[in-house]
Design goal:
This protein is an alpha/beta fold. The chain is built from 18 helices and 15 strands. Helix 9 packs antiparallel against helix 10, helix 11 packs across helix 12 and helix 15 packs across helix 16. Pathway: Amino-acid biosynthesis; L-tryptophan biosynthesis; L-tryptophan from chorismate: step 5/5.
Length: 454
């Protein structure tokens, strides 16, 4: 089938284990530190926030961790997800490269986020937890946890960053349809939110502050645990089902990826597609590939951030983690890829970057929307603003191949569709979408306030 465009795995071939890259790294990442003592945290320190099974996954060094059968049952609603060959995009670009994309927009929530929301909800339910609190930016994670919480009988409260809460009202409606409560952050329901509002009643919010609110609720209520959609090891672990499926599907194509691209905000999508392929390389099962993380120029944690210990939230309630960070007090501009507006990069991705295993690029939102529209008009799928960054990165790689006359194979993860982001596309078409830059002075100030760790 020389013109085949879609590659589907049989349901029986869906991975039944998650891949933990820690087992294959040449050097372990630095441990998280207690925010009060500055000492490495233990399981008891995380117990107020997470169920025991999640804590065990967070610190595990095992290469493979079994996916519980009840979780697999839910996954089978949409997994395995399809792999596509983007032949029309290739033709438009005039590139000798082959472009493939793994499409995660087929999930009920329309993104890759349920890959972690479902197991997190299940593990909490198994331990008798009744309520979950969480944060969300653009709303993909909040809607995914609302979906998963509804399946397992959990009450979910979502703190959505104010700028995205206002920009994307239908994400909020989706969360409420699945039974969750969605509040704008900063809110008047937490000390962290009230303090932010007292300082600036019109504050657009940040993921760091929304995390503070969600963590505060979990820490103060014994019947509530905290769930998050990116950054920490267990979330990245859950997403590796994406890359494992992609390995099997690329074998079906007869091609092998030379370059693997993903967008990065907190890091879950990039880790999901890249870590299983990096693992092959680390185990000596494959030669060197290039792994390209694409982030927004307005919130460039990998390309402009400092690799240092920092808090994961604005109010400094979370453990200190070693990551590329713009500073926990840094507030990115209100660009439309709300899921990428986080001040730090996942510690594990930061670590592999420091090991030289991946590279990073940053682009402004207008260039990314231009790439997203080009993709929609050739391949038919309207991508989420976050996913347009991966498309932009893949297009740049394809154009490089054209300039160099190289017929490389490019694989990227299309992390979600943009059906609830059409206001952003309309702003782009109306010429109202502008490239926003962060404040250099604010960045310098935020970095100057990084905690001093011995």
């Amino acid at each position: 089938m020389p013109d085949r465009n879609r590659y589907l795995l049989e349901e029986s071939r869906m991975p039944r284990q998650w891949y933990n890259i820690v087992a294959d790294l040449p050097a372990p990442p630095a441990p998280p530190l207690h925010p009060g003592t500055g000492q490495p945290i233990g399981p008891d320190d995380l117990a107020p926030l997470f169920p025991k099974a999640i804590i065990a996954q967070e610190v595990s060094t095992e290469r493979w961790i079994d996916i519980p059968e009840p979780v697999c049952e839910v996954f089978r609603m949409w997994r395995p997800s399809p792999l596509f060959r983007a032949r029309r995009l290739e033709k438009l670009l005039g590139t000798p490269a082959k472009i493939y994309f793994k499409y995660e927009g087929v999930s009920p929530a329309g993104s890759h986020k349920p890959n972690s929301a479902v197991p997190q909800a299940w593990y909490n339910a198994q331990e008798g937890v009744k309520k979950l609190s969480t944060e969300t930016g653009a709303g993909q994670w909040g809607s995914s946890l609302a979906f998963a919480g509804g399946l397992f009988g959990l009450d979910v409260t979502v703190y959505q960053v104010r700028v995205s809460y206002d920009q994307k009202p239908y994400r909020r409606a989706m969360m409420e349809t699945w039974g969750a409560k969605c509040l704008p952050s900063p809110s008047d329901t937490t000390e962290a939110g009230r303090a932010a509002l007292a300082k600036n009643p019109d504050f657009m919010g940040s993921l760091g502050l929304a995390i503070s609110e969600a963590v505060e609720v979990a820490a103060k209520n014994e019947d509530t645990k905290y769930a998050l959609g990116s950054v920490l090891n267990h979330v990245l672990l859950h997403q590796t089902i994406v890359g494992q499926e992609a390995i099997l599907q690329m074998e079906m194509t007869g091609d092998d990826p030379d370059v693997i691209v993903g967008c990065t905000g907190g890091g879950s999508n990039f880790a999901g597609i890249a870590f299983p392929f990096i693992g092959q390389q680390l185990r000596g099962e494959h030669g060197k590939r290039r792994f390209v993380a694409v982030e927004p120029a307005a919130c460039p944690s990998l390309t402009r951030g400092k690799f240092a210990y920092d808090f994961g939230d604005t109010s400094h309630l979370t453990p200190l983690v070693n990551m590329h960070t713009l500073g926990s007090t840094f507030t990115p501009p209100g660009f439309h890829a709300g899921g990428l507006r986080y001040h730090g990069m996942a510690p594990m991705i930061s670590h592999v970057a420091e090991l030289g295993l991946i590279e990073a690029q940053a682009y402004h939102q207008k260039a990314c929307f231009e790439a997203g529209v080009m993709f929609a008009r050739t391949e038919g799928i309207v991508p989420a603003p976050e996913a347009t960054h991966a498309i932009k990165g893949a297009i740049e790689e394809a154009l490089r191949c054209k300039r160099e006359g190289k017929a490389e194979t490019i694989l990227f993860c299309l992390s979600g569709h943009g059906h609830l982001d059409m206001a952003a596309y309309q702003a782009y078409f109306d010429g109202k979408l502008i490239d926003q830059d962060y404040d250099e002075k604010e960045l310098a100030m935020a970095l100057s306030l990084l905690p001093q760790v011995a």
